[in-house]
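stage 2 :: seqdesign
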C-alpha cells in the first residue's frame, strides 16, 4: 500500500476530481513522477512547481525530500507571493 496523497483545491481536477490518490513513493520527486505517469494532466503543474505538505511541513521544489511511510501528504497549488 502506498501513500494516501490528498489533493487540494485546483489540483483535484487534474486527477479526475479525486480528493486523494494512492501512490507509492519515497521522495517528493518520485511522488511527482508517478503522479504524472498516472495522471498526465499533472505534467505542466509538476514542471512549474507544486507545493507538497508532509506531516504539516510545506515543501516547494524539494524533489529529494524523503516521505516517511505513514506520512500525511497533501498536494497544493504552488504558493506564490509578492
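stage 2 :: out
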Amino acid at each position: 500500500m502506498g501513500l494516501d496523497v490528498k489533493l487540494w483545491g485546483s489540483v483535484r481536477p487534474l486527477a479526475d476530481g479525486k480528493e486523494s490518490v494512492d501512490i507509492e513513493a519515497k521522495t517528493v520527486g518520485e511522488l511527482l513522477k508517478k503522479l504524472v505517469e498516472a495522471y498526465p494532466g499533472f505534467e505542466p503543474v509538476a514542471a512549474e512547481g507544486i507545493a507538497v505538505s508532509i506531516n504539516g511541513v510545506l515543501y516547494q521544489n524539494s524533489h529529494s525530500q524523503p516521505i516517511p511511510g505513514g506520512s500525511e501528504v497533501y498536494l497544493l497549488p504552488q504558493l506564490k507571493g509578492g
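stage 3 :: structure notes
- The helical segments are 28-38, 43-48.
- Residues 32 and 46 are 7 Å apart (CA to CA).
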